[in-house]
Automatic annotation (TrEMBL):
This is non-specific serine/threonine protein kinase. Signal peptide: none annotated. Residues 19-68 form the KA1 domain. Pfam families: KA1. The lineage of its organism: Eukaryota, Metazoa, Ecdysozoa, Arthropoda, Hexapoda.
Length: 73
């Protein structure tokens, strides 16, 4: 059984976190989209390069912000 997801609106964000010497420590993409007819919000994430631990911390912050937004409603 296959599912089809329809994306009506997409927002793609590219982020870079740098060391104090200016070199890129982490590069990543976040794509925020509405999924299907219920208009649930989905976040597609991708680490392009860099430290896995730093990437994990960034994602935890993003997910914490989304849960705070849900509690405010």
């Amino acid at each position: 059984m296959s599912k089809r997801l329809h994306f009506s609106i997409r927002y793609t964000l590219e982020g870079r976190i740098r060391h104090t010497d200016g070199k890129v420590r982490l590069s990543f993409e976040l794509e925020i989209c509405f999924v299907g007819p219920t208009k649930q919000v989905g976040i597609r994430r991708k680490r392009l390069k860099g430290d896995v631990w730093c990437y994990k911390q960034v994602l935890e912050q993003v997910l914490a912000l989304t849960s705070l937004n849900q509690k405010a409603k």
